[in-house]
Amino acid sequence: MVVTLLTLVRIGFPAFKDYITIDHMEVMNKIIMTTGMMVGYAYGSEFFIAWYSGNPFEQYAFVNRAFGPYWWAYWTMVSCNVVFPQLFWFRKFRRSIPVMFVISLLVNVGMWFERFVITVTSLHRDFLPSNWGMYAWSRYDAAILFGSFGMFSLRFSYFTFAFYRRFQSLK
Prior knowledge:
- By secondary structure, the protein is mostly helical.
- The protein has helices spanning 2-12, 22-53, 56-67, 71-83, 91-94, 97-123, 139-170.
- The relative contact order is 0.12.
């Protein structure tokens, strides 16, 4: 999220290019790459522990997460959080503003899908088969999601413009 916001500030307010340098962005991209590797290790460890435990219920939960009805959400999460950040191994990609913006957006999408996968796949197959069901997206879910985006965008814009005005008055 930091790289996404820094990129937007850097593009929207050229006066900040001296303060938000490409070197700062490159270091943040290295952190994204490292975090992606740690998250991939954690995902693999979860599967290993489920397999090694010998508990058929836990094994089913993890196999269902990856190959069940919500397989698309799981693999979107894995690709956005683990695979795409590994493009930052290449210096050319680490120092390219458009590439870092797209990858940071994909990581944000992957983190949202991680919450979705944890919540929905855990609840759609309960211990009681009578509680089994598929998640249905409602207008309330959409309102909460887009409302939170709107509220964050409003507050971030207010902060950025106030900071920019203060920055201009100091010059």
